[in-house]
Specification:
The complex is a heterodimer of chains A (536) and B (122). Chain A has 536 residues and is an alpha/beta fold. Chain A contains 12 helices and 28 strands. Helix content of chain A is 22%, strand content 27%. In chain A, strands 1, 2, 3, 4, 5, 6 and 19 form a 7-stranded mixed sheet that branches. Chain A has a 7-stranded antiparallel sheet with strand order 20-23-24-27-26-25-28. In chain A, helix 1 packs parallel to helix 7 and helix 7 packs antiparallel against helix 8. The longest helix of chain A is centred in the middle third of the chain and has 18 residues. Chain B is mainly β and 122 residues long. In chain B, 9% of the residues lie in helices and 25% in strands. In chain B, strands 2-1-7-5-6 form a 5-stranded mixed sheet, covered by helices on one side. A 3-stranded mixed sheet of chain B has the order 4-3-8, with no helix packed on it. In chain B, strand 5 and strand 6 form a beta hairpin. Chain B is globular and about 50 Å long. The chains are: A alpha/beta (536), B mainly beta (122). Chains A and B meet through strand 8 and helix 3 of A and helix 1 and strand 4 of B. The structure holds flavin-adenine dinucleotide, iron/sulfur cluster (2 copies) and FE2/S2 (inorganic) cluster (FES). Flavin-adenine dinucleotide binds next to helix 1, strand 4, helix 3, helix 4 and helix 7 of chain A. The site of one iron/sulfur cluster has 15 residues of chain A, from helix 12.
């Protein structure tokens, strides 16, 4: 039987991070993953990450994945693909299926980093071809370059539902609606706003009543639910769609840990059954560790830190590292992790009702129910200021652990301070040079550059733009409000692309002055009928 | 129906293998070598991969990562092949799966919804 110092199950962000740390300390490490390609969820994520520099913020998920893979191969980690671990025993023996062969391997330490599986809710017609998981949609569009359909309805408004919906828009699908039985949008407001401003409607306190079609999906009916999640008769709404995408949460894939006899606990805040772990990720069986989504559903950024912690702990467990050095590293990593676990979306705040920001500003209710900030709500936030000349307008209104906006500004126009979750503030008297870095780097696409008065009755509004085709300078069209309604005629005045913008284009449009603080998206086409009708 | 992405605003041009021909229920279709069979079928507008044994209900891609078994078909004569994770090869023979067979239920002598013990949810 082959023997290793550390066996890692799962080559996602947590598994790879752990393998890197262990290999760096001279351990013989192998990583098994059931997929053909390593990286877990990371390679399906094409948006820029939140967090701070230490957490690789403003880098797109798939690039973080590429960096991790390179790091792993540099330190000599062996990754064995198309290898499914089907069994684990108390004495740290694993059963691995590779092709038709069954192998037995033994690890002096083991890390389970198997991630999560998608939850499903049954509704009439849920097995029809055309009803797919959100993960499937991501896999199809981002790994295989194929659209799941033309017109999609998304069930679920957590970050997965929001992010995947935006990805679907980006590659050319139409989003009919986002629907959630909960009364409030579960994911980040900034992710929701990216969708709302393009005209995608949100239906909260609604769920799917029936998916229609004989051989495949041809439509879907949703209806409103009451506080007990019962349908309210007469509230049905029908959409013609060919795809229904389901993003109703993830559950830790912790079966292997259970099989091995690790002590387990049901923790709804962690998404289901998870192993009981110490602060370094060690389970009740010494030398068996868990990290990432399998130990509690969170994010890739925290999964990577948890992985590193487990890797370091395994090194110490097997004597590849002194206890003192290990403690120092663990302390550093714990600090990074704590930083990420702050703010209103922190695991500890799950299920809590929060109605004010840390700064004491009332949260936007429109944002939580419709996905956008109402024009009269946005004024209250410290990123929203009026100035003469070009200046940033920051519509980031929830306390999320993130600060690239502060990091990238060469003129220190934007301040968050040391508290990562504080709301970004536009610094008084700082002189913005219109470089565009803040707009392109904001992970939530929540920053706009506005020149409220160009002297000819127009204002210039610069927005982040990640769609194709990219409108050219001079293109006529109309501006959309935060709510996605047609607002006024608009003309593209500038289009900026740069390597430093990392595929986020900056589109500037001229709009009548009075719309400077309202126009937040552009669509080309006939502006004549731009009078308040819902766009898209 | 379904379309391939020619150019993606972030990812650029999708990487694909060489074009190859394969058959689906006897019809010759084209796909790219190495991509999952299910993707090639999707690009050709195929939605139904199989019909369940008991209720004769249609199933198609659901998870796209090899976990749910909704997408299984008869490939080169072998049933229960998960097409979402099986790479396409030149000349592959892909068939709709009825229960566990490539023969439509009528030809199997199994009237709708009477026989078999297939799992209806998967
Ligand atoms: C749509 C979407 C958007 C997201 N956006 C963000 C974001 O903006 N920022 C952020 O920080 N996080 C984000 N996340 C969350 C993030 O992707 C996950 O938290 C992270 O991937 C968890 O990492 P992991 O290593 O624990 O698991 P995974 O990435 O899921 O990797 C686990 C790996 O283990 C493999 N595996 C499982 N079981 C076995 C077995 N028995 N044998 C062999 N291999 C096995 C799996 O196939 C997989 O490759 C998002 C997630 C989704 C779905
Ligand atoms: S445009 Fe440049 S200078 Fe102005 S706020 Fe943004 S990053 Fe700072
Ligand atoms: S404004 Fe700053 S803190 Fe808010 S999402 Fe953008 S980069 Fe992050
Ligand atoms: S679609 Fe789930 S196994 Fe193929």
């Amino acid at each position: 039987m082959k023997r290793y110092d550390l066996i890692v199950v799962g080559a996602g962000p947590s598994g790879l991070s752990a393998a890197v740390e262990a290999a760096k300390r001279g351990m013989r490490v192998v990583v098994f993953d059931e997929n053909e390609k390593p990286g877990g969820q990371l390679f399906k994520q094409i948006h820029k990450f939140f967090g701070s520099k230490e957490h690789k913020a403003r880098i797109r998920g798939f690039r973080i994945g590429q960096q991790l893979l390179k790091e792993a191969s540099d330190v000599g980690v062996t990754v064995i693909l198309s290898a499914t671990v089907i069994g684990m025993y108390q004495d740290k023996e694993l059963v691995v299926r590779i092709g038709d062969e069954i192998h037995h391997v033994k690890g002096d330490s083991i890390l389970i980093a198997t991630g999560a599986s998608e939850n499903m809710v049954p509704f009439e017609g849920w097995t029809l071809p055309g009803v797919i998981g959100a993960g499937a949609a991501q896999t199809m569009i981002n790994l295989h370059g194929i659209l799941p359909g033309k017109r999609v309805l998304m069930l679920g408004t957590g970050n997965v539902g929001l992010v995947v919906s935006f990805q679907l828009l980006q590659c050319g699908c139409e989003m009919a609606a986002l629907v959630d039985a909960a009364p409030k949008i579960g994911g980040y407001g900034v992710h929701a706003s990216k969708l709302a401003r393009t005209g995608v409607p949100f239906y909260l306190s609604h769920t799917i009543k029936k998916v229609e079609g004989t051989d495949h999906v041809t439509g879907v009916t949703i209806a409103q639910v009451d506080s007990k999640y019962q349908f309210i008769p007469g509230t049905e709404k029908h959409f013609d769609v060919d795809t229904v995408c389901v993003a109703v949460g993830l559950s830790p894939m912790s079966q292997l840990l259970k099989m091995a006899g690790c002590k387990m606990v049901d923790d709804p805040k962690k998404g289901g059954q998870v192993p009981v772990c110490d602060e370094r990720g060690q389970t009740s069986i010494p030398g068996v560790f868990a990290a990432g989504d399998v130990a509690g559903i969170e994010e890739a950024s925290s999964a990577m830190i948890e992985g590193r912690m487990a890797g370091v702990a395994a090194a110490e467990y097997l004597g590849f590292m002194e206890e003192a050095a290990c403690s120092r590293e663990e302390d550093e990593l714990t600090k990074d992790l704590d930083c990420l676990r702050q703010g209103m979306f922190a695991p500890k705040n799950k299920g809590k009702k929060i109605d004010k920001t840390e700064e004491g500003i009332p949260l936007s209710n429109t944002l939580l129910t419709k996905g956008y900030l109402a024009d009269d709500e946005v004024e209250a936030f410290p990123g929203f200021t009026h100035r003469v000349g070009v200046h940033p307008v920051i519509e980031c209104t929830q306390n999320i652990p993130c600060n690239p906006c502060q990091d990238v500004c060469p003129k220190e126009c934007i301040s968050i301070g040391d508290n990562l979750t504080a709301l970004p503030v536009v610094v008084e008297n700082a002189a913005c040079i219109d470089c565009g870095m803040c707009v392109a780097s904001c992970s939530g696409q929540a920053i706009f550059l506005v020149d409220e008065d160009k002297g000819d009755g127009t204002a210039e509004v610069t927005i982040p733009y990640e769609f194709l085709p990219l409108p050219e300078k001079g293109t006529e069209g109309y501006a959309l409000g935060r709510d996605g309604r047609k607002l006024c005629p608009a003309t593209v005045s500038r289009v900026r692309t740069a390597k430093a913008f990392d595929s986020t284009n900056l589109l500037s449009m001229r709009v009548p002055r009075e719309f400077a603080m309202k126009a937040r998206f552009f669509k080309s086409g006939n502006a004549a009928d731009a009078a308040g009708e819902v766009a898209g | 129906m379904a379309q391939r992405i020619a150019l993606h605003p972030i990812l650029g041009v999708p990487e694909k293998g060489r074009p190859v021909k394969f058959t689906f229920d006897g019809k010759t279709l084209e796909g790219y070598e190495g991509e999952p069979i299910a993707v090639a079928l999707k690009a050709n507008g195929v939605m139904v991969h199989r019909y369940t044994k008991k209720g004769h209900q249609p199933r198609g891609i659901f998870c796209a990562i090899g976990r749910c078994t909704d997408c299984v078909m008869v490939v080169d004569g072998e049933p229960n092949i998960r097409t979402c994770i099986t790479p396409l090869k030149e000349g592959m023979k892909v068939e709709t799966q009825y229960g566990v067979s490539p023969l439509p239920f009528e030809e199997q002598g199994c009237p709708s919804g009477k026989k078999g013990d297939g799992d209806e949810t998967v």
